[in-house]
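queue> pop job 88
queue> type: inverse folding (structure -> sequence)
queue> payload:
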C-alpha cells in the first residue's frame, strides 16, 4: 500500500481529525512497517527431521552427539529428543542452521532483535553431576547465545527441578536469581512453576508438562528475556544481560537454533513443536510512524481552524 502525501487528503466531515489521523497512521504503519519477518519456522508435519529444505535454501536440520538414544519426528507432529545414555562423551543435539534457513538483509531495521517461540514438554530428566537440558540460540562466533535450561538446582541445600535462563551453555551451575518463576528474596514459587524436588530414582518425576516458550534476543541493547506459559495459563518472565552482545548483522555467521539433551551424558526426554523465529521491527521505525501521525494530526487541526 502506498500513500501520496503530496495530494490533498479529504475525509468526511463527520470524521474527527484525530480519528482521521489515526487511520492515516495505521495506513502508514501498514505500508512502511513490515510485520515481524519470519526467519525460520517448523511444525514437524513430516516423517523425518532431515532433509528439510526450508524456503528452497537446502537442508536446515542436522543432528549429532555420541550418547545413545534417538532424535526424530514422532507421528508427523513434533520433534522428540530422547537421550538414554550416561556416556559422558557428549549430549545429543538437533541443530537448525540459520545461515541456511533464511537470507539476512542487514540493511533492514529489526535485524538486531529476534523472537523465538516454541512448545516444549520435558517428560524426564536425570541429573548427572552437572548437566542440563538446554534449548535456544547458539552462535559459533562467540557472540550472543541465549538458552532456556532445565536442571536440578540447589535451593537452600535441596536439589530442585527448575527452569532457568542463561547467556550460554556454560552456566550449568545456575544461581537462584536465574530461575524462572522463583522469587529468591521470598523463597516462593510462582503458580505452575514449582516442578518439585529432584527425584534421583524415578526420572519421569523430573519434568515440566506442556509449556509455551518465547525467547527474545535484543542484541542491540544486550538483553535477553523469556516468557513461559504453562498449559494451565500460568505465566513467568525473566530477563538477563547478554554476554558479548553484538548487532544481528554480526550474528549470521554460523548461527543456529539448538536443542540439546543433558550435557555430560545425563539422560532425558523432551518434545519440541511449532518453532517460529522472527525479526522484530526496531522501535525507531515505530517512532517514525508515530511522528508522521503527529504531523498529520497538526495539519488536520490547522485545516479545521482555517475552514472555521
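queue> result:
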Amino acid at each position: 500500500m502506498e500513500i501520496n502525501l503530496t495530494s490533498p487528503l479529504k475525509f468526511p466531515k463527520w470524521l474527527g481529525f484525530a480519528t482521521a489521523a489515526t487511520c492515516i497512521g495505521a495506513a502508514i504503519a501498514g505500508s512502511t512497517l513490515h510485520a515481524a519477518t519470519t526467519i525460520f519456522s517448523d511444525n514437524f508435519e513430516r516423517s523425518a527431521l532431515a532433509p528439510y529444505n526450508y524456503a528452497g535454501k537446502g537442508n536446515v536440520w542436522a543432528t549429532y552427539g555420541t550418547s545413545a538414544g534417538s532424535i526424530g519426528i514422532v507421528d508427523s507432529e513434533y520433534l522428540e529428543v530422547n537421550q538414554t545414555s550416561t556416556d559422558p562423551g557428549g549430549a545429543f543435539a538437533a541443530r537448525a542452521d540459520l545461515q541456511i534457513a533464511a537470507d539476512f538483509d542487514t540493511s533492514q531495521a529489526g535485524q538486531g532483535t529476534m523472537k523465538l517461540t516454541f512448545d516444549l514438554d520435558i517428560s524426564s530428566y536425570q541429573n548427572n553431576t552437572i548437566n542440563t537440558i538446554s534449548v535456544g540460540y547458539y552462535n559459533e562466533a562467540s557472540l550472543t547465545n541465549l538458552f532456556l535450561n532445565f536442571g536440578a538446582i540447589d535451593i537452600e541445600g535441596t536439589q530442585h527441578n527448575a527452569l532457568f535462563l542463561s547467556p550460554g551453555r556454560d552456566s550449568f551451575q545456575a544461581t537462584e536469581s536465574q530461575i524462572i518463576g522463583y522469587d529468591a528474596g521470598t523463597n516462593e514459587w510462582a503458580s505452575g512453576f514449582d516442578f518439585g524436588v529432584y527425584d534421583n530414582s524415578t526420572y519421569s518425576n523430573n519434568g515440566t508438562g506442556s509449556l509455551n516458550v518465547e525467547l527474545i534476543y535484543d542484541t542491540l541493547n544486550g538483553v535477553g528475556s523469556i516468557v513461559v506459559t504453562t498449559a494451565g495459563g500460568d505465566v513467568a518472565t525473566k530477563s538477563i544481560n547478554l554476554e558479548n552482545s553484538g548487532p544481528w548483522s554480526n550474528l549470521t555467521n554460523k548461527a543456529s537454533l539448538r536443542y540439546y539433551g543433558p550435557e555430560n551424558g545425563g539422560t532425558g526426554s523432551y518434545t519440541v513443536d511449532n518453532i517460529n523465529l522472527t525479526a522484530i521491527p526496531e522501535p525507531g521505525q515505530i517512532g517514525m510512524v508515530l511522528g508522521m501521525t503527529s504531523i498529520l494530526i497538526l495539519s488536520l487541526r490547522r485545516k479545521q481552524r482555517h475552514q472555521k
